[in-house]
Amino acid sequence: MAALAYRHQDHRSASRQSDLFTETRFGEDEPVQAARELPMRSTAGLGERRFTAWRGRSGRRYVASIFAIGDGHALGFTDAILLAVSGERRILAARDSGPLGIEAALTRWQQAVTQAGASEIHVHLLAEDGISRRAALLDLMPEV
Q1: In the chain, pLDDT over 90 holds for what percent of residues?
Q2: What's the number of CA atoms in the CB half-sphere (13 Å) around residue 20?
Q3: Structural domain contains residue 94
Q4: Domain encompassing residue 83
Q5: Residue 30 contacts residue 41 (beta carbons within 8 Å)
Q6: pLDDT tier at 57, thresholds 50, 70, 90
Q7: Which uninterrupted H or E stretch holds 84?
Q8: Number of domains in the chain
Q9: Contacts of 22 (CB under 8 A, 6+ apart)
Q10: 53 lies in some domain
Q11: Deepest of 16, 28, 47, 71, by most Cβ within 10 A of its Cβ?
Q12: Which band of pLDDT confidence, cut at 50, 70 and 90, is reported for residue 98?
């Protein structure tokens, strides 16, 4: 699965990395250690859960559409960030769908993350270019 999903590897010293991921962001009470889901209050009244937001390690917020793991529509977006999310609301893997949305590679990724325990795919479409998508991936992807 390593070849199919981006994983963050920070080559800083362990003490510096610890400082980076335990500092408090935006006046929050708990330290930012990993990306976490923050359900959107504006969609709370909807009958079904279609959108969510994730807060990255940097403190940035990423809005995403929610798809069941087997829903092929999640793989149909180009230039999107795909997040494989477990039933415990953790990101298991993250990847860029790419400009062409290569179906075979995306299908293999979907199968791999399903086997790893993913129950949903969250799709973030608002990163405008490759640099923005790469930055978002580094901010959201799970630690190794």
Answers
A1: 49
A2: 13
A3: yes
A4: 14-140
A5: no
A6: very high
A7: strand 81-86
A8: 1
A9: 31, 32, 33
A10: yes
A11: 71
A12: confident
CA 51, chain centre distance (Å): 13
4: helix, coil or strand? Answer: coil
The tens digit of pLDDT for each residue in 4-56 reads: 344 444 444 333 333 333 333 344 445 457 888 887 765 556 656 789 999 99
Instruction: Please tell me whether residue 59 adopts helix, strand or coil conformation.
Output: coil
Name the token pair of 28.
């929050």
Distance CA 144, CA 142 (A): 6
Residue 123 lies in a domain: yes
Q: Mean pLDDT across the chain, nearest whole number?
A: 78
Length of the chain, in residues: 144
Q: Are 133 and 81 in contact (CB under 8 A)?
A: yes
Q: Looking up tokens 């299908």, which residue turns up?
A: 107
Query: To which residue do tokens 């980076």 refer?
Result: 20
In this prediction the pTM is 0.73
Between residues 61 and 104, the one the model is more confident about: 61
User: What confidence score (pLDDT) does residue 37 get?
Assistant: 87
List CB contacts of 90: < 8 A, sequence separation 6 or more.
34, 142
The span from the CA of 43 to the CA of 29, in Å, is: 24
